[in-house]
Amino acid sequence: MQTEKSAFEVGVDLLSRREHSQTELRQKIGQKGYESDDIEAAIERLVELGYQSDERFCEQFIRAKVSRGDGPMKIRSALSQRGIKAQLAQPIFAEQDWYEIALEVSRKRAEQARDFKQQQKFTRWLVGRGFDFDTVRKVISYWQRNEEF
């Protein structure tokens, strides 16, 4: 007869698939019906053993989102939803060249930046990806000056 897993074991199972923030672990373990005291003890132990780290989660999450072409505003919002404080993410954000990322993401749509009628659509698209207006303005200016896509 198989016994029910402890909250700690559920946490280990979740972390064996991918990194999770502490907030995500609380939610997912809680959905399985464990008491909050058991959940907190499990998370504390996972952190103590080095199985869970919000810093590691944050770094991995940001790098994955950057590789998909997401901008800083969108990533900050997603991190906040996962319980990650802005100051934890700040050093990783500072390493990124958001202008270069926006240029690379927009390369396929650069033609829109040149066409005045299409610029609003292009701007909305980049802002929707999480880039601020200053970065978008610089990207539009770049594509208007350069022929290369």
Summary of the model, kept short:
This protein is an all-alpha fold. The protein has helices at residues 7-17, 22-30, 36-48, 54-67, 72-81, 86-95, 98-106, 110-114, 116-128, 133-145.
Key terms:
149 residues, mainly alpha, Arc Repressor Mutant, subunit A, 72% helix
CATH domain class of the largest domain: Mainly Alpha
* Overall average pLDDT: 92
Instruction: Give the CATH topology of the largest domain.
Output: Arc Repressor Mutant, subunit A
CATH architecture of the largest domain: Orthogonal Bundle
What's the number of helices? 10
Low-confidence stretches: none
Apparent shape: elongated
- Give helix % range: over 70%
Q: Could you describe the largest sheet, including whether it forms a barrel?
A: none
Class by SSE composition:
mainly alpha
H and E string: HHHHHHHHHH
Our estimate of the beta-strand percent is under 5%
The CATH homologous superfamily of the largest domain is named Winged helix-like DNA-binding domain superfamily/Winged helix DNA-binding domain
- Intertermini distance: 63 Å
Domains, number: 3
Q: How many beta-strand segments?
A: 0
Radius of gyration: 20 Å
